[in-house]
């Protein structure tokens, strides 16, 4: 009963963080804000896939797509940390 609510809250929290970071990037134009917002966009997509995989389509395994989006999210943030920090 509570699992779908938790998944939706995680999804909306990631979307809110991505939106706030992107709004801050538009004002300040700092590269780390861009990479962080892209990371949270991918985390939103990952949370959406978790919700679809577990709640909506439990018979279809989307674990590979979830792992790929998680890897991309961490990779984007790592790239921002390593190559874009002055």
The counted number of beta strands is 0
N-C termini distance: 47 Å
Write down the overall mean pLDDT. Answer: 95
Radius of gyration from the alpha-carbon trace, in angstroms: 14 Å
Helix content: over 70%
Assembly state of the chains shown: single chain
Order of helices and strands: HHH
Give a short account of the largest sheet: none
Structural class of the secondary structure composition?
Answer: mainly alpha
Number of helices: 3
Low-confidence region ranges: none
Strand content: under 5%
Shape: elongated
Structure description:
By secondary structure, the chain is mainly α. 85% of the residues lie in helices and 0% in strands. It contains three helices and no strands. It has helices at residues 3-28, 31-56, 63-83. Helix 2 (31-56) runs antiparallel to helix 3 (63-83). The N and C termini lie far apart (47 Å).
Task: Write a brief structural summary.
The protein is an all-alpha fold. The protein is built from three helices and no strands. The chain is elongated, with a radius of gyration of 14 Å.
Features:
about 90 residues; mainly alpha; 3 helices
Blueprint (SSEs and pairs):
Elements: H1 3-28, H2 31-56, H3 63-83
């Amino acid at each position: 009963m509570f699992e779908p609510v938790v998944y939706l809250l995680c999804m909306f929290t990631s979307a809110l963080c991505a939106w706030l970071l992107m709004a801050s990037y538009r004002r300040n134009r700092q590269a780390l804000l861009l990479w962080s917002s892209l990371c949270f966009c991918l985390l939103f997509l990952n949370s959406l896939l978790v919700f679809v995989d577990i709640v909506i389509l439990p018979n279809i395994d989307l674990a590979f797509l979830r792992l790929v989006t998680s890897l991309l999210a961490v990779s984007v943030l790592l790239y921002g940390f390593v190559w874009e920090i002055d």
